[in-house]
Every structure is written in structure tokens, then in C-alpha cells.
Task: structure prediction
Amino acid sequence: MSTAEVYDYIVIGAGVQGSFTAYQLVKRKKKTLLLEQFTLPHTRGSSHGQTRMIRKAYDQNFYTHMMDEGYELWAQLEREAGVKLFRRTGLLVMGPENSRSYLDFKSTLEKNKIPMVVLTPDNFNQHIPNVILADGDGALVDTTAGVLYADRALKVAQGQFHKLGGVIKDQEKVTDIKPGLTVTVSTSAGVYQAKGLVITAGAWANELLAHVNLHLPLEVMRINVCYWKEKVPDSYHVNKRFPCFLLTEGEEAKDHIYGLPSNEYPGLMKICYHYGSETDPDQRDKKTDCADIDILRRYIARYLPGVIPEPAVVESCMYTLTPDRHFVVDRHPAYGNIVIGTGFSGHGFKFGPVIGKLLCELSLGEVPSYDLSPFQISRFQTMKSSL
Ligand SMILES: Cc1cc2nc3c(=O)[nH]c(=O)nc-3n(C[C@H](O)[C@H](O)[C@H](O)COP(=O)(O)OP(=O)(O)OC[C@H]3O[C@@H](n4cnc5c(N)ncnc54)[C@H](O)[C@@H]3O)c2cc1C
Result:
């Protein structure tokens, strides 16, 4: 067997979290290898597609706090690379006015002094045309929110990593990990060693963690990414200042619906359901479940009169969900030089630069910049008895 290539750190998985972690490590002058099983760029994980929503509106303070720095780091990357990655649109949050989740969103924004506008049923359509506000719903706009250009962002993060001397090897599936003071990683094409390893493998996390005797309670879900045609072109366009929107809760599972203004496909608006059907990540495109599309059809027919309630384009993506929908950002319980970032539960893209920084800090043995207790593995207590 040929001798192993030696690095300071190896990162497995070149999605948004792995790419930003690798970038942070190389910025800290660490010799870093980023391994990816598919040829880059690819559409088979969770970080592809043209857009993602970015917002400070959350129902938990800790996410809103992290996003303060998140916005700064996205802007810093834009400056470093000279590429536009963010477009401000605002985020319209709607939900039953007295419901817990709507009030949690509102109070988190208030407590953290995030600029927002509260709309009333009387002035709603002056600000948001072509949307029907459901009876009893409250509406507010997080004016800091907007759209991230996702594919472009990933390319930029990987490009900056490469520019600073980082090594990317795609089309190399990791097939084995041997823990130890020096970690040995085998792929379909080679063997590599490093003093530290970061596993950011998205929907494949448990497949890799099995090599280091760990199993996390993750559910992998196929998501239909639906685009819907506007009846009058551009009536919900980003240039007409139409915002992103999300529903906090309501009848007929409305709470799982969110949308982005038309932008990437001319005349098509992205409206999706924040839930799907369980899948094996290697079989994602073999079966399409359409229950979510039926819910979206009914919602659009009733509340978005300017949109044809039939999807024009359906793409697919995956969520890797934890039981509490909070992330996993932690060290391996038995091997301190193996760090894990997974379970981003359908809302992790906007945090990419912050998660990259945190996983880098954990790898370097530093005190992380945020309290990571909501993201610890110990909350699951499902480690294999062999540990
Ligand atoms: C439809 C949809 C809409 C979303 N909308 C938003 C949004 O509006 N805002 C937001 O903030 N977030 C959003 N998200 C969530 C966000 O996109 C994800 O949380 C994020 O992309 C997860 O990134 P990741 O790096 O963990 O996973 P991935 O992007 O899947 O990256 C993991 C990588 O690891 C690689 N890998 C796995 N196993 C191996 C192996 N053995 N060897 C080598 N490589 C391997 C995979 O090929 C993959 O490239 C959305 C997600 C989806 C699906």
C-alpha cells in the first residue's frame, strides 16, 4: 500500500458546513484536506440550488444571537471574494396572532432589537399585495432577512479555501476511519492521516459515524423543492420588493410552508413544504411522495391569488433532522480529535460561516464562541454500548 498523505486536519463532506469549516481551518494556517464523494459541484446532498433564506427571525434566542455574527461573516466573505452572495428582501412571518410560536418569533425579535415592522389586517395589503392574510393571523416583517445565493456561496467558500492552499479532493468516497492520536481516513482513491478530523457528511453522517462507533438519532427526509408560476409575471418578484415568507402555525399544517420571491427562474416563485418523506440518501430520487404538494396546492389556491396552484418545476433536496430540530455541533464523546457537524434540520445554510468557525474552534481545542449546549450529542443519550 502506498504511504498516507499527511495533513493537520481532514474534513469529510464538501457541503456548506464542511466547506466553511475547511476554509476556517486553512485561514488559521492549518494544512487541510476537504474530501467529497461526488464530483463538485453536485446536487445530491443538501447544499445545492440557487437560493436559501437568511433571517434573524427565530423562536429561540440562541439562533438569533448566532445570526448577528452570521450576517457579518457572510458580508466579510462577499468582500474577500468580491462576489455578491446576499440580497435583502425582508421576511414576512405570519401565524395565529395569539399562538405560542408566532408570539415567540415576535418576542425574540423585540428582545434582540431586530428591526421589524408589525402589519395589521388594515394595512397588510398596502405592504404585501397578492397575499391573503388568514383570519386571526398576525403578520410581521423581519427587515434584516433576505436570500443567499447558495450555489454561488458554496463555490466561493471552496474557492477561497483552495486559494489559501487548502486541498479539495472530490470523487473520493470515504470508506473507513481509524481513530487514534493520528486519525487515518481511507477513501476510494487513497489513504490520508491527520491529527484531527471533522465529519460534516449531511445525510450520510451515520454511515460515517459507524466507523467510529457512534449512532445519532437522525432522520433523513427527501424534500420536494417546488416552483410555481405567477399568473402575472413578476408580481411576486424580488425586484418588486416581495419578501420571503414563512408561516409559524395554523390549520392544515400551514406551519410547514415557506416561500421565496421569484428570482432564480423567471416568473416562478419558490414555495415549499418544510417536511417530506423518509429516504435513504443514496436512493433519494427513486420515489416521489406528493402529499406535501397537495397541501401546497390548497394553500396557494386559497392565500396566493396571483400564483397558479400547480407546480411548474419540482427539484429535490434532503433534510437531516434531529428529534428536537437543533443542530449537532460537538466533539465525538470518546475521541476528542474527531469533531461532528450534522443534523442541520432544514435550516442550517444561513449559519454556514458561523458553524464553520465553531467546528474549527472545537478542532483546535479552543473554547467555542457560543454556548453549544443546545447542540451537544449528550442530549440524545443514544451512543452505542461499545463506547
Ligand atoms: C429544500 C431545502 C431548503 C432549505 N432552505 C433553507 C433555507 O432557506 N435557509 C437555511 O438556512 N437552510 C435551508 N436549508 C438547509 C440547508 O441547506 C442545510 O442545512 C445545509 O445545506 C446542510 O449542509 P451540510 O453541509 O450539513 O450537508 P450537505 O450539503 O449534504 O453536505 C454533506 C456532504 O458530505 C458528502 N459526503 C457524505 N458522505 C461522504 C463520504 N463517505 N465521503 C465523502 N463525502 C461524503 C456529501 O456528498 C455531501 O456533499 C434547506 C435545505 C433544503 C433541502
In short: The pocket of flavin-adenine dinucleotide is lined by residues 12-18, 35-38, 45-47, 52-53, 173-174, 200-204, 208, 223, 225, 272, 317-319, 342, 344, 346-350 (CB under 6 Å). Residues 5-47+151-217+324-379 form a domain with the FAD/NAD(P)-binding domain fold (CATH 3.50.50.60). The two ends are 30 Å apart (CA to CA).
